[in-house]
Amino acid sequence: MHIPDGYLGPQTYAVLDAAIVPAWWFAGARVKKTLRAKQVPLMALAAAFSFVIMMFNVPVIGGSTGHAVGATLIAILLGPWAACIAVSIALVIQALVFGDGGITAIGANCINMAVIMPFVGFYLYRLIAGDAPGRGRRIAAAGVASYVAIVAAAIAAGVEFGLQPLISHTASGQPLYAPYPLAVAVPAMAIEHMLFFGFVEALMTMGIVAVLARQDSGLLEMKPAARPLRWLWASFAGLVLLTPIGVLAEGTAWGEWGAAELKATLGFVPAGLEKLGGLWTAAMPDYAPPFIANPLVGYLVAAVLGSALVIGATWLLAKLLSRKAGDTPSGPVSPAA
Amino acid sequence: MIPALAHISDSAPRRRASRSLARRTADALASAVAEVLANDEVASRPGLMQRLDPRVKLISILGFAVTVSFVHSLPVLLAMAVLTVALAVASRIAAGPFLRKVWAAAGFFGVLLAAPAVTAWITPGTVLVPFGPASITYPGLLVAARLVLRVAGGAGFGLLVMLTTRWTDLLAALTAMRVPDLVVATLAMTQQQIMSLLRTVENMHLARESRMLSTASAGQDRGWVVERMAFVARKSFKTADDVYDAMLARGFSGAVPTLSRLATGPRDWTWLLVSVASCAAMLAIDRMVFPA
């Protein structure tokens, strides 16, 4: 996932290089506040650990091996802000000392692997593991979180690649940088990581969390998340408020055509689709509640209702899972373990 | 001088398929350590780039890397890729090994990623070799060649910094360029700890290799690797505590003293002027002589 120089045009790498600076500054301020004077050796060791973990070959299937990034694991161990700095330092050293990843693309690589990955991984881990998780739930949470986090980072890289033909091309339309459009770049990056690297990351993170939970559970104590839920809820509310922008987009998402649109495009409606199309009538088709006339307000209300349903279902599921797991907290470290 | 240990991968050649996971990983780790040590040796040679002030070198190379990203025409991109080789040779780095490093760092994946772009499926246009949707097109070849040359040029300039600058000089340059002491101290410590952890992990793998009588199953390998990773995690955090105690004991004040004394001379200013002029000339030729 290390993007070398040359794949991203100046418009993209300049924006991402500029975007990573405030992230580093804020991460530095947070780490300084929570870790204080210990930050230098701890960050250095975490960065070194991040670097070295990328050099471990993990056997997967058919004799093949892959390596993990470890950003979610470091976020679980140190918190997301510290992980942001540690992984960034590892990436800068990889670029400057080992020639892995480009100099102009440092911002892009850090946004993908040192911001998106640890933050997605950490908060998903917190969401699934809860406040006082048992060993099994903690391991499962680490696996799911690390898998989703690396796929999210890969999709971000795919979007960065896929934007290039749109942003920079010759007068005749030839792409000047990464040549693949979003429709190719995003699935290519996502599928590769969903089928292979995601499992390597999850396997490694789950394994290390399992060993640490058995041998040194103190390292897995829940880190102060810097009022994580407040930030999460604020960002979430902001996104919900922005949903009416979706109404401005014209046309239907690719592959989500209804019978009428297919009829208009193809001249006929496939028999199976016609037969099954009317099987279920949604309560709010096209995200338009029937009781609201204004499409913008309707879209917003649909977003609020939909989000409430998803949160409610997740909360119920988490409650059920925690009851089933019995929530046996991990005990003290056994010297013999 | 590179210690004998660093040459493990060269001195014990075996067929790749027959090597165990432990051996393969140990070889990769040994070659990573060897690479760093070899880079320091190359950076100490009396070549063109090595004689430059590291601040001037960093700024000029960054200028070249940015220029490569703005250039679109194949002849100018090719000229910039050739320039990296010329600068490497002038810095007493043999062209062959330099090109191999460029190929390993970016060239191979550049070609691999660019290959589908030559087809009509991705880049439609005048067909040169007909083969249905996989027909090779003229615009496709242009797109792929541009990507490969740009990636090779960018990687070449990046490698020039890496190969001609000692790590301590790079840190001194960052300090002089007002990068916060905290960041420089962390970078310095990280590099040392990376080397230490690489040695530890390499020894773990070699120890396992020496104890193995037969090949382990993938499941056994996986279990062992995960256990060792967890050990490295615990060792890292334990070492962080020890290093912090040592820092306190030695009165660490937050500043990072360095023995490297940086001073710019006429050579540095001449180089900076030549670099700026070269970048401007490349851009001018690209825009005026070969407009996209």
Low-confidence stretches of chain A: 327-337
* Number of DSSP strand runs of chain B: 2
Classify the helix fraction of chain B into a percent range: 55-70%
Q: Which of globular, elongated, flat, extended, rod-shaped describes the shape of chain B?
A: flat
Radius of gyration of chain A: 23 Å
Alpha carbon gap, first and last residue of chain A? 36 Å
Largest sheet of chain A: 2 strands, antiparallel
The CATH C-level class name of the largest domain in chain A: Mainly Alpha
| Mean of pLDDT of chain B | 81
Instruction: Please report the total strand number of chain A as a whole number.
Output: 2
Spatial order of strands in the largest sheet of chain A: 1-2
List the helices and strands and how they pair.
The complex is a heterodimer of chains A (337) and B (292).
Chain A: H1 10-35, H2 39-53, E1 58-59, E2 65-66, H3 71-78, H4 80-97, H5 106-129, H6 135-167, H7 182-215, H8 228-242, H9 245-248, H10 259-266, H11 271-277, H12 295-325
Antiparallel strand pairs in A: 1-2
Chain B: H1 8-11, H2 21-43, H3 54-70, H4 74-90, H5 95-114, E1 127-129, E2 136-137, H6 138-164, H7 167-176, H8 181-211, H9 218-249, H10 266-288
Helix pairs in contact in B: 2-8, 3-6, 3-10, 4-6, 5-6, 7-8
